[in-house]
Amino acid sequence: MPFIIGEERNQITLFPYTLDDYVSEDNPVRVIDAYIDSLDLEKLGFVIYSGNRSGQKPYRRQDLLKLFIYCYMNKIRSSRLMETEATRNIELMWLIGKIKPDHGTISSFMKINKKAIKQLFKEFTLMLKGFGLIDGILVAIDGTKIKANSAKNKHFNENIIKEKLEYYEAKIEEYINDVLNTTDDESLKQKINDKIECYQDRIKNLNAIKEELKEQGKKQVCLTDSDVKSMKNNGKFEVCFNVQAVVDNKNKLIVDFEVVNDVNDQGQLSNMVKKANEVFEDQNITALADTGYFNMSEIVEVVDERTEILIKPQKGKQQKVENGFDKSNFKYDQINDAFICPMGYCLNFKWNGKQNGKDFKRYTCVNFNECGKKEMCTSAKGGRSIIRFKDEEIIDQVTENTIKKYHIYKKRGSIIEHLFGTIKRHFGYTYFLTRGLESVNTEVSFICLAYNFKRLINIIGVKELIRKFRGGIAPILHVFYEIILF
Question: Which of 83, 219, 342, 484 is the residue whose CA sits 20 to 30 A from 41?
């Protein structure tokens, strides 16, 4: 026989297989089973049912949690796909005991346990710290945009409203001039009048949205999900959420995350550094961040004796950078409280001021007619001026330190960039299924937990992890619960 032939479908076997026979001893699904069984879900905040009430009995919370973690680790997020998978996937049948929850039950579990799922991720992070897999010596911070569960045409801002209003008004005028005023066909007139009424209704709705934006002081709104915003993503504007993450250098594991709706990263540095400090509260950390996070007030807020920030400053205007007259080319003389320009002239202190609630000093050049480079330096008639904020010494120290430790700083990309590549390309999670910041954060909790779980299995191995979860880890987990809850 030239081919390998499988078993006959109707063949009866003398010794039927058990589900356990189909799951090898080193199958990662056994780690999920051991880990969830080691948890006290009630202490973590999961809604637990006694099963003593009359009516249909509930599913065990452990089984539903196992279902979620397994599916997220295997690129499945939809509750309907989970429902289908539970009836045909042998590994999943083994894991949850062949139960068949419907998509409503599966979806409800996630909705009513949002806070507990977030706590579960924190517990997992503390467990990684206990295993010595994360140390906080060097962490990297970055963010990525992921598309929201919303159609693009449900998003409005001032420019979109203006363009649509102009279009609808032009179409109404076109129908009136080109059709209603030139034809006697009553049926055609009726069709055109219906279209005009439709456009007038749209104009009315757009004006209502415009007025609502004005009253609330907002620049944009999405009718499907009020929490999302239009952000630049892959070279175009899309309705997205901004996923922020902190990754530890030792094993490239996620320390913490948060989903926000900020259109850029400038206001997130202190938030993410504080999250890292909460995990590594007893030690010094060095945090790496790209230029997108450069914000003076954010840097000043988090830099202290045990937190070091390495971050590249934003570039000045291209023309001044090329000419050599960017602010970075001016040296500050701390003794004389003056700036020295690239030509060697002094910019002396002139007066104090305040910008966005921050105090600053203004320094002005008086020799601009003598240096011969005024056109390259400034277009101001009174010569070049430079402002120095009160806390700019800290920024100077951070910038100088970043240059000095550039060999460390350049590790940033290799620490954190692959995380988002894995989530988007390998897992395929390029868009969200849920709506609202709270629900999306819950969804990302499962995504990050799945990512860390897969890396944990690769680092330690299936059998060793099962031994830890089944054996000596229970006392450690109890301590973690106490830390999390109290």
Answer: 83
What is the per-residue burial (b if ≥16 Cβ within 10 Å, else e) of 217-227? Answer: eeebbbeebeb
Element (H, E) at 248: strand 236-248
Q: Is the dihedral angle over the CA atoms 100, 64, 440, 138 positive or is it negative? A: negative
- What are the pLDDT digits (tens) for 329-388? 888 888 888 888 888 888 888 888 877 777 788 888 888 777 877 777 887 877 888 878
The kind and range of the H/E element at 255 are strand 254-260
CB atoms within 10 A of CB 207: 12
* Cα 26 to Cα 39: distance, rounded to the nearest angstrom: 21
Q: The domain 138-145+238-313+400-426: what is its CATH number?
A: 3.30.420
> What pairs with residue 349 in β-bridges?
363
pLDDT at 478 over 60: no
Could you give the angle at which helices 114-130 and 269-279 cross, rounded to 10 degrees? 60
DSSP string, 124-148: HHHHHHHTTS---SEEEEEEEEEE-
Residue type, 341: C
Q: What is the pTM of this model?
A: 0.85
CB 272 within 8 A of CB 258: yes
User: DSSP letters of 214-242?
Assistant: HHHT-SEEESS-TT-EEEEETTEEEEEEE
Spatial separation of the C-alpha atoms in residues 275 and 270, rounded to whole Å: 9
Q: How many angstroms separate the CA atoms of 245 and 124, rounded?
A: 15
Question: Which DSSP string do the residues of 152-215 spell out, in sequence order?
Answer: GGGEEEHHHHHHHHHHHHHHHHHHIIIIITT---HHHHHHHHHHHHHHHHHHHHHHHHHHHHHH
Domains of the chain, by residue range, sit at 19-131+438-485, 138-145+238-313+400-426, 152-222, 326-383
CA 220 to chain centre: 20
**Cβ contact 392:296 at 8 Å:** yes
| 52-81 burial code (b ≥16 CB/10 A, e <16) | eeeeeeebbbbbbbbbbbbbbbbebbebee
Beta-strand runs (E) in 319-470:
331-333, 338-340, 346-355, 358-365, 385-389
Q: What is the pLDDT of residues 71-116, one digit of tens each?
A: 999 999 999 999 999 999 999 999 999 999 999 999 999 999 999 9
Give me 43's structure tokens: 């202490």
